[in-house]
Amino acid sequence: MKIKSLYTLFTLLLVTSCMPPADASSEGGGSFLPFFMILAFFLFIYFVTIRPQQKRQKEHQTLVDSLEKGDEVMTSSGLVGRIDAVKDRYVSIRLNENVTINMQKEFISSKLPKGTINSIESQ
Questions:
Q1: Whole-angstrom distance, CA of residue 112 vs CA of residue 72
Q2: Which residues contact 84 (CB under 8 A, 6 or more apart)?
Q3: How many CB atoms lie within 10 A of CB 92?
């Protein structure tokens, strides 16, 4: 909600800064205020949306690159299992003694601490 109100505020500031002055008789030189407002708006968008998304992508890529056999992981769909094999783009995940699935590495959402599966099964 707070970000929406900031977007609205910046839009209003941008629109009002681009309007001609109320005194039509004064013909002053061009103002750089509209340019600075647009620049400030794009910098705000960059630091609020684009940069955090790039950071999350980098962290996820580091996670995907660090996957090894025996790691306990959670998939993006919520399945919890242990990695049996790591291939180029795919991993084999053992969900229990009888069920093993193959999936793309990109769908691993997090690496769990060792012993998580045992603690889940004991509940």
A1: 5
A2: 69, 92, 93, 94, 100
A3: 16
